[in-house]
Amino acid sequence: MPEVTFSTFIMSLNTSALYHLGEIVDPETGARVVNFDLARHAIDTLVVLEEKTKGNLTGEEHELLKNILYDVKLRFVNAVRKKREQ
User: How sure is the predictor about 1, in pLDDT bands with cuts at 50, 70 and 90?
Assistant: First the structure.
């Protein structure tokens, strides 16, 4: 297991959100899981971390969190839009 740092914690939450958006397959079954509620929960957790750590992160940590939030929010919106179009 990698050392637990703020960055690895953020990456873990990002992985959870991507998994629940169906972007990452289940390693055991190979199936894609889509659960918007759990994806939104992971994104909301990242947002809370961004708000609560404001001014206390290194530049690298801040950029990582900002970029991951931008990316995962965009993926969420696209996934929801795609689902509605089906």
Answer: confident
Q: Are 27 and 21 in contact (CB under 8 A)?
A: no
* Burial bucket for residue 23 (CB in 10 Å: 0-12, 13-18, 19+): middle
DSSP state for residue 27 in the 8-state scheme: T
Mean per-residue pLDDT, 29-41:
96
Question: Is 0.90 topped by the overall pTM?
Answer: yes
Pairing verdict, β 32-34 and 21-25: antiparallel
Q: Which residues contact 73 (CB under 8 A, 6 or more apart)?
A: 43
| Contact status, residue 10 vs residue 49, Cβ threshold 8 Å | yes
